[in-house]
Amino acid sequence: MIATPNKLSTAKQFSKAAGQYKQHAHVQKLAAELLFSRLNKHSQVMLDLGAGPLLHQHKLKHHSDCLVAMDLSLGMLAETHPENNVNRVCADMDKLPFTDNVFDAVFSNFAIQWSADPEVLFKSLYSASKAGSQVLLSTVLDGSLSEIAQAWKAVDDKQHINDFLNLTQLIKIAQSVGFKVVYSNQHCLQDHYDKAISAIKSVKNIGANHLTDCQKEQGLLGKAAYKNLLSAFPLQDGKAVISYQVGILELTK
């Protein structure tokens, strides 16, 4: 069940991007590889939280007897044909529909930043995880999309980028609900484009352009304002770069 209008809007945005997500999710794939490097055991039941179009189902199935793929977007989950031992659940991560002590492992790549209440999410993950479980998370952190934020300053003084937690805040939340932090690190992962317009559109292409705060500015721009936005986009060696600050966490119960 998706409880709020904002979550319904987020789900709709990701469903729109479902068909093109795979070809544009470059940074997400890099973050997933960082998580896979720490996936070190076989599990009976694994949760892929924020599974999207099930990009990682084949690798994750090698590490589990039963894989549960959960996502807010039904469109994302519908992108791939059903396969054996992949159970699909369309649900809100802030209202996990699972019983206690069911998962030996949790894998979540580029998803938990969409939680409206990270403390509630971590409590639910803790309850749903078995003792000794491995919980691997990658998430977008504070400082991400700084190039887009800088470009928007040439247009207006409103906020056009979502707020993200920093790594220290995430660690404190995880520890406060009972998790032990086995590993934590922060990486700057980047996409490079020939033009500013391609860099800006890249965020929309993966469905990540939805603003979680309704008070933040959205809507269409006039031609002059859009030209200013593109002109103000900072370049690195002639390339338009989108930077994501990515936190990697390995937790255990």
Structural class: alpha/beta
Shape: globular
Measured as a percent range, the helix fraction is: 25-40%
Number of strands: 8
Order of helices and strands: HHEHEHEEHEHHEHHEE
| End-to-end gap | 27 Å
The percent range for strand residues is: 25-35%
Summed over residues and divided by their number, the pLDDT gives a mean of 86
Main pleated sheet: 8 strands, mixed
Kindly provide the radius of gyration, computed on alpha-carbon positions and rounded to a whole number of angstroms: 18 Å
| Structure annotation, total helices | 9
Low-confidence stretches: 209-220
Description:
The protein has about 250 residues and is α/β, with parallel strands linked by helices. Strands 1, 2, 3, 4, 5, 6, 7 and 8 form an eight-stranded mixed sheet that branches. Strand 1, helix 3 and strand 2 form a beta-alpha-beta unit. The longest helix is centred in the N-terminal third of the chain and has 20 residues. The chain is globular and about 55 Å long. The two termini are about 25 Å apart.
